[in-house]
Specification:
Largest sheet: 7 strands, antiparallel
Shape: globular
Pathway: Purine metabolism; IMP biosynthesis via de novo pathway; N(1)-(5-phospho-D-ribosyl)glycinamide from 5-phospho-alpha-D-ribose 1-diphosphate: step 1/2
Strand order of the largest sheet: 3-2-4-1-10-9-11
Mean pLDDT: 91
EC number: 2.4.2.14
Number of strands: 23
Keywords: 4Fe-4S, Glutamine amidotransferase, Glycosyltransferase, Iron, Iron-sulfur, Magnesium, Metal-binding, Purine biosynthesis, Transferase
Distance between the termini: 23 Å
Protein name: Amidophosphoribosyltransferase
Organism: Gluconobacter cadivus
Low-confidence stretches: 1-7, 331-336
């Protein structure tokens, strides 16, 4: 993606995946990462363990680019492996920042893959550097490596628990060690997702275990979904089976509501809620709340599709694919001059003119961040002959930056933070603009209203209600 693209909409966190006790563990991990490709397209990495030695390979690009060669997979033997898809929320795009990160300790090797963001990583890094720790990357994940190294506890698991008790933030972790095996964890409020699965054969007691960011990664390898890892829970998987630890007690849960709106794949099930159905119901709520006379309902691909289906069904207005997405656009392959950047939307989306010409169009999209992309899409639809364009957004207005692992601009760059609804409509060139209400969003997720649902979700990007302390921001530190 171009730099300008990354500022015009929220971008994914990262994807993590791990398997234990499975032949060809690295091949299955590569497949799992492929299913999680939507969570990060900058880089991918795998670390495997063959019972004696660790093996690793990582690189910049998509999973198929990094692991598409069978000769690479042959260098990753073992029945246990962990993997990571990266979208940079801290640190730049460099191979040294590609996860899983690996380190040799006195007790042996350890690899860690991390999805999310630590809100006190800069504070911790400052203290660790003063102690003599040398950082080799600029990603906040390396903080875990050093906290484990300096811990005074004896066992690896106790060192791990000691480390996670010192960090604040929203994260899911998968760690691989020789003795304790596979360790998975979600942050104490469960903001970021992590699910547990079993491979075929577990009914006879010989099926391996799987940890993944989303259930879609279980589906691709034929694993059965077992359950979501609970907020603050640590699961340890090794030859003795699985055991669960809860060093943080029960602090409730504040799962990221934007997973349902945009980030997760629509065929995933998170926290017991099918993502596709949640998005479809949001579209139904939008149709009830902000009806408008029109001829056709058109999604902005891809996250807008289920919601547009719901909007069309509820409103009785026909659903059509008036915008076609080119799925083969990755990084811009031409020097990103201003002229090429302005063509970026047309490289990713094209208007289906016969569907749009002479029609009153309702466009359904997931969010408006800076508004630049929305304006270009609206212009493209009008150029295809639409007589009216009405924009319907499946999230409340994004008015606040995310500090929990989502790449969003600072608040001064967010259109909804600086414009009224009418000003936003004029700026993006639509005849009308409406966002789903807070109550409508939470009704779509099965709650009576936001007052009931907000106790289960983090919606800080809409409300500014940050459930986890922003330590580095309060201390004016940057990671």
């Amino acid at each position: 993606m171009t730099q300008s693209d990354s500022l015009n909409r929220p971008y994914e966190e990262c994807g993590v995946f791990g398997v234990w006790g499975v032949p060809d563990a690295s091949a299955l991990t590569a497949l799992g990462l492929h299913a999680l490709q939507h969570r990060g397209q900058e880089a991918a990495g795998i670390v495997s363990f063959d019972g004696e030695r660790f093996h690793q390979h990582k690189g910049l690009g998509l999973v198929g680019d990094v692991f598409g060669d069978s000769r690479v997979m042959a260098t990753l033997p073992g029945t246990v492996a962990i993997g990571h898809n990266r979208y940079a929320t801290t640190g730049g795009t460099h191979v040294r920042n590609v996860q899983p990160l690996y380190a040799d300790y006195e007790f042996g090797g350890l690899a860690v893959a991390h999805n999310g963001n630590l809100t006190n990583s800069a504070t911790l890094k400052q203290a660790l550097v003063k102690r003599g720790c040398i950082f080799h990357s600029s990603t906040d994940t390396e903080v875990f490596i050093h906290l484990i190294a300096i811990s005074l506890y004896t066992t690896v698991l106790d060192r791990f628990i000691d480390a996670v008790k010192q960090v604040k933030g929203a994260y899911s972790l998968i760690t691989l060690t020789p003795d304790d095996g596979l360790i998975g964890m979600r942050d104490p409020l469960g903001v970021r997702p992590l699910v547990l699965g079993r491979m075929p054969g577990h009914e006879q007691g010989n099926g391996g275990w799987v940890l993944a960011s989303e259930t879609c990664a279980l589906d691709i390898i034929g694993a059965d979904y077992v359950r979501d890892i609970e907020p603050g829970e640590i699961v340890v998987i090794n030859n003795d089976g699985l055991r669960s630890l809860r060093p943080f007690g029960d602090q409730g849960g504040r799962f990221c509501v934007f997973e349902y709106i945009y980030f997760a794949r629509p065929d995933s099930v998170l926290e017991g809620q099918p993502v596709y159905e949640a998005r479809r119901q949001i579209g139904c709520e939008l149709a009830r709340e902000s009806a408008v006379e029109a001829d056709v309902v058109v999604p902005v691909p891809d996250s807008g599709v289920p919601s547009a289906i719901g909007y069309a069904a509820e409103s009785g207005i026909p659903f059509e694919l008036g915008i076609i997405r080119n799925h083969y656009v990755g990084r811009t392959f031409i020097e990103p001059t201003d002229q090429i950047r302005n063509l970026g939307v047309k490289m990713k989306h094209s208007a289906n003119r016969p569907v749009l010409a002479g029609k009153r169009v309702i466009l359904v999209d997931d969010s408006i961040v800076r508004g630049t992309t929305s304006r270009k899409i609206v212009d493209m639809v009008r150029a295809a002959g639409a007589t009216e364009v009405h924009m319907r957004i499946t999230s409340p207005p994004t008015k606040h930056a995310c500090f929990y692992g989502i790449d969003t601009p600072e608040e001064s760059k967010l259109m909804a933070a600086t414009h009224t609804l009418e000003e936003m409509a004029r700026a993006i060139g639509v005849d009308s603009l409406a966002f789903v209400s807070f109550d409508g969003l939470y009704r779509a997720l099965g709650h009576a209203n936001r007052a009931e649902g907000a106790r289960r979700y983090c919606d800080a990007c809409f409300t500014g209600d940050y459930p986890i302390q922003l330590v580095d921001k309060e201390g004016n530190l940057v990671a």
